[in-house]
């Protein structure tokens, strides 16, 4: 799959923008604050229904506007697909595919993208929410229907937590809140499906992760990943506990549901006391290890970067192997500036073989020669294609949002 053309309206700093891309490497060069990352973010949104920079959609709508439009022409072998999403500052987003209204969670069926960005280091070193977001965005690309499951879980979680807060304010204790059981059932059904999908994803990433890490780092440090689950005890969100371990595929979903229900019952008093839901996939953590030690807290800066890059490369290889659409688009957003010369070279050599690569950089010399091909310059609100130096295809509302 490749992105042939990207059109934006009122997205981030762009009032309008048009960007033509080609197969192979594409380089977007410009000083910080010109909007390079905004272009990358728009492409990624079509594939993951989320941003790698913010947790809500409203910041992506240009100041003073009520909605933004992302529109892209995608090439799937001989097939062309036009996908479009309207991001609303308030209310649900809207989507179109080839001009016909569609559900937004259909978009990842057509757009397959893997983003490498400086923020990736937070997947390794940050709090559990960064790792959950990484996993869930990959889940959506792998199985688009999971966007609906994750959205439904979030809604049930908010409603159940609101009920707990109300009960705390009214001084309800113990078993005095029978209506909570209705929400327990919904939380368990949706949450068990998410946990099961995450565990399977971790298992499927294990082999490509090990191969990618060895290639990037030039050494075999036995990288591993597994989920620490709140349904098994403890609270991974708060660094407590325990218990990773995934169970067998045959009994996994049923076991998870039973553990989920037991854990909710065990935490009932604490939940009523604190006014929050303490069990479920929103409290879990993806544990990363090299040489049998947790990456967070033990790995060096270089090792942490190798793990982060390997996670993205493993994601790309998984999507490449499973998707009938071919390679995902790889976006390397200002990542070369963060790497030493050796990792820079290794990453460039691996990614150059993908069908389409988009590289952003503030300093053009940071880009390895193997990726230094079709160059687009972004300056003072204007996108200029070097193949057509007279082009002036974008106008920004402000120049200080990259």
From TrEMBL:
The RecF protein is involved in DNA metabolism; it is required for DNA replication and normal SOS inducibility. RecF binds preferentially to single-stranded, linear DNA. It also seems to bind ATP. GO terms for cellular component: cytoplasm. The lineage of its organism: Bacteria, Bacillati, Actinomycetota, Actinomycetes, Micrococcales. This is DNA replication and repair protein RecF. Residues 3-362 form the RecF/RecN/SMC N-terminal domain. It is found in: Cytoplasm. Belongs to the RecF family. InterPro entries: DNA-binding_RecF, DNA-binding_RecF_CS, P-loop_NTPase, RecF/RecN/SMC_N, RecF_2. It holds the Pfam family SMC_N. It comes from Microbacterium bovistercoris. Residues 229-250, 382-402 are annotated as: Disordered. Keywords: ATP-binding, Cytoplasm, DNA damage, DNA repair, DNA replication, DNA-binding, Nucleotide-binding, SOS response. The gene is recF. ATP binds at residues 30-37. One of its GO terms (molecular function) is ATP binding.
């Amino acid at each position: 799959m490749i992105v042939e053309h990207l059109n934006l309206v009122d997205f981030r700093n762009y009032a309008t923008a048009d960007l033509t891309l080609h197969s192979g490497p594409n380089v977007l060069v410009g000083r910080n604050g010109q909007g390079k990352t905004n272009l990358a973010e728009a492409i990624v949104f079509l594939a993951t229904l989320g941003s790698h920079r913010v947790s809500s959609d409203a910041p992506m709508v240009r100041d003073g506007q009520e909605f933004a439009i992302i529109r892209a022409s995608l090439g799937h072998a001989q097939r062309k697909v036009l996908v479009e999403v309207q991001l609303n500052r308030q209310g649900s987003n809207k989507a179109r595919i080839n001009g016909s209204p569609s559900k937004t969670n259909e978009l990842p069926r057509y757009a397959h993208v893997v983003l490498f960005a400086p923020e990736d280091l937070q997947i390794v070193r940050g709090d559990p929410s960064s790792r959950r977001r990484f996993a869930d965005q990959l889940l959506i690309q792998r199985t688009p229907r999971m966007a609906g499951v994750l959205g439904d879980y979030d809604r049930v979680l908010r409603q159940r937590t609101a009920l707990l807060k109300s009960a705390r304010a009214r001084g309800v204790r113990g078993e005095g809140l029978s209506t909570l059981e209705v929400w327990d059932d919904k939380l368990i059904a949706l949450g068990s499906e998410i946990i099961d999908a995450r565990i399977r994803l971790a298992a499927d990433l294990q082999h490509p992760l090990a191969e990618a890490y060895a290639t990037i780092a030039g050494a075999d440090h036995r990288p591993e990943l597994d989920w620490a689950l709140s349904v098994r005890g403890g609270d991974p969100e708060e660094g407590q506990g325990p218990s990773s371990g995934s169970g067998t595929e045959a009994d996994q979903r049923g076991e998870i549901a039973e553990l989920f229900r037991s854990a909710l019952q065990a935490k009932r008093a604490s939940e009523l006391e604190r006014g929050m839901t303490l069990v479920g996939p929103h409290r879990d953590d993806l544990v990363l290890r090299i040489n049998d030690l947790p990456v967070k807290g033990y790995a060096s800066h270089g090792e942490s970067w190798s793990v982060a890059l390997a996670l993205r490369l493993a994601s790309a290889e998984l999507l490449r192997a499973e998707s009938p659409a071919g390679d995902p688009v790889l976006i390397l957003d200002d990542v070369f500036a963060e790497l030493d010369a050796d990792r820079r070279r290794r990453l460039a050599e691996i990614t150059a073989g993908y069908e389409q690569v988009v590289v952003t950089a503030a300093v053009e010399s940071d880009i390895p020669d193997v990726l230094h091909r079709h160059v687009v310059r972004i300056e003072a609100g204007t996108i200029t294609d070097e193949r057509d130096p007279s082009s002036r295809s974008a106008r920004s509302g402000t120049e200080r949002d990259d």
